[in-house]
Amino acid sequence: MQYKFKISLFYKILISIFFVLSCNEVKKETIYKKGMVSSAHPVASKVGLDILKNGGNAFDAAIGVHFALSVVYPNAGNIGGGGFAVYRLNDGEVGSLDFREKAPLKSYRDMYISNSDDGSTVDDKKSKIGHLASGVPGSVDGMVKLYEKFGSLDWKLLLEPSIELAKNGFSLTDKQSNSLNRVMILFDSINDSEVSFVKEIKWKENDILIQKDLSKTLERIRDKKRDGFYSGLTADYIVNEMKKGDGIISYEDLNNYSSIWRKPIIGKYKEHKIISMAPPSSGGIALLQLLHGAEKLNVGNYEHNSLEYINTIAEIESRVYADRSTYLGDSDFYNVPIDDLIDNKYLDNRFSSIDPSTKTPSNQIKEGNIQFNESEETTHFSIVDEYGNAVSLTTTINGAYGSKVVVENAGFILNNEMDDFSVKPGYPNMFGLIGGEANSIEPNKRMLSSMTPTIIEKNDNLYMVLGTPGGSTIITSVFQTILNVIDFNMGMQEAVDAKKFHHQWLPDFLVVEKNTLNTNLNENLKKMGHKINERSSLGRMDCILIENGILEGGADKRGDNTALGY
Ligand code: DON
Questions:
Q1: What pLDDT is attached to residue 117?
Q2: How much distance in Å is there from the Cα of 451 to the middle of ligand 1?
Q3: Per-residue pLDDT at 110
Q4: Measured from the CA of 417, which atom of ligand 1 is nearest?
Q5: Does residue 283 line the site of ligand 1, with CB under 6 A?
Q6: CA-proximal residue: ligand 1, atom 8 (nearest)
Q7: Rounded to whole angstroms, how far apart are CA atoms 218 and 155?
Q8: Of all atoms in ligand 1, which is nearest to the CA of residue 469?
Q9: Taking CA atoms, which of 63, 346, 503, 558 is between 20 and 30 Å from 76?
Q10: Burial of 361 (0-12, 13-18, 19+ CB in 10 A)
Q11: Active-site amino acid positions
């Protein structure tokens, strides 16, 4: 395994930083041979590309990109949130890191229910906005853990581009300026201190966003790694910020936080090996269930996005999400029946009632019968390096700009990940997902996620690296992108561009991207009983396809996503 590269490249990287700052135009071709980074922002992709070109490996680049996104993509990139990384080394070894947020020690099951005696009033605003919405952040610990195991360049060099971008600013894209304008009032009302995202007049494209406090926080992380965030000044700032609202994150929570190496979920789709994320993400298990259904029902034989195709997929998805809501949660706290849920016999039976020409009303779908043996804001990036290592990483602060709380003096946004717990059995979270005991709130527990960073092998070789944001729609977008490539022979970019749809059992809606359905198809789906809910877009995929030694990027045009390589 050759993932180490040990020369100091300080000057080269510094030169690259100036290039990043001066570079508004980036090459858009997405076919390369050596290495590639596909991320939600062109500047972050450029940071990763420079690290790769300077001899860094995919993990060095992932760390650089993650910190860069915390600056240039504040709606989801973060140091105040958490995520998951799935990797495959060039010798075939696979693994994953869980740096998901945890419920603070002072959290408790009914913390968002105002009258727990009759259990009636859920104050779900508190799980979404403000200080009480945040779990204990995991991102910085995650990056340090990735570095300690696989990093090859100097840690400080990986942080330098982000520090410069925060200190000197970067220019906003059109989409970003609009997004900040939408949220400015909320930022202003939640925070009593000055926030770099708020200004007197509206943001416009090419305005420079400077984040001085964030640059100092990143400097502390550069100098002290984990301690630069979980103790010292940054910890003081977080705990002080908590005191200003109803926040409960304590020094003890910060000190105790630790990300965890987990065995990925591994399965097969046709001749492909699928490697994805285990609980506390539901992504890997749900993805394998979906793919099993797709293979059993031969969905590749239908015309892409035709009536039978959409209905069959929606039927498979409904059953999978019904299972998710009952059985999935943090496996360190709840006995998630992982093997049973992806067992071939169980799944054959689970999908046996599907008729491609009939829609089953969601109230007639229940979770499957498992016999217990007792006992649109996240961001994903995909990286392949010239040594053949791959990293698939999804990270989030949950909703756009998380809890909207910006830690005073530290300049970063805290997540609102507590809303991913089931705040009350059967009560929907912000993505309409429901849950129960498996995903109830407990101190130190991780909230269930849909993030699905995935790597696929074909004939024992690295084949695809993919993932996306999108809340509950993450799993189904990853699923359909895989089908697009494997069953419909699309290239990576084409598979990402293709229109997507989504069914999550409850609410009983077929969510469809605008312009997916012609009038006929729309009418026929309605006749089957589908209630159609149109959305402007689904997913912001960042993917890489590796075939015959060629890397093809798939960066979602629905966002500012950009794949760069060399
Ligand atoms: O972990 C999860 O499943 C969610 N917190 C992800 C949030 C998300 O993707 C928001 N993007 N649209």
A1: 59
A2: 7
A3: 94
A4: 5
A5: no
A6: 471
A7: 12
A8: 9
A9: 503
A10: exposed
A11: 378
Average pLDDT per 10 consecutive residues for the chain, totaling 566 residues: 42 46 46 96 98 98 98 98 98 98 97 74 91 98 98 98 98 97 96 96 98 98 98 98 96 98 98 98 98 98 98 98 97 96 98 97 90 69 98 97 98 98 93 95 98 98 98 98 98 98 96 96 98 95 97 97 97
Q: Say how many residues make up the chain.
A: 566
Task: Look at residue 367 in the predicted model and tell me its pLDDT.
Answer: 87
Q: Establish whether residue 82 lines the binding site of ligand 1, counting it when its CB lies within 6 angstroms of any ligand atom.
A: no
- How far is the C-alpha of 414 from the C-alpha of 160, rounded, in Å? 22
Q: Is the CB of 378 under 6 A from ligand 1?
A: yes
Question: Strands, E, within 56-109: which ranges?
Answer: 82-88, 94-99
pTM above 0.85, yes or no: yes
pLDDT (0 to 100) of residue 121: 85
pLDDT at 403: 97
Here the tokens at position 527 are: 């006749």
**How far does residue 53's CA lie from ligand 1's centre (Å)?**
31
Which positions ≥6 away from 467 have C-beta within 8 Å? Answer: 380, 381, 382, 392, 393, 394, 451, 452, 453, 454, 474, 478, 541, 542, 543
Q: Write the CB contacts of 530 (distance below 8 Å, at least 6 apart in sequence).
A: 311, 314, 359, 510
58-to-7, 65, 282, 395 alpha-carbon distances in Å: 16, 10, 25, 16
- Expressed in angstroms and rounded, the spacing between residue 471 Cα and the centre of ligand 1 is 4
Is the Cβ atom of 539 under 6 angstroms away from ligand 1? no
Tokens 């229940």 belong to 366
**pLDDT of res. 1:** 42
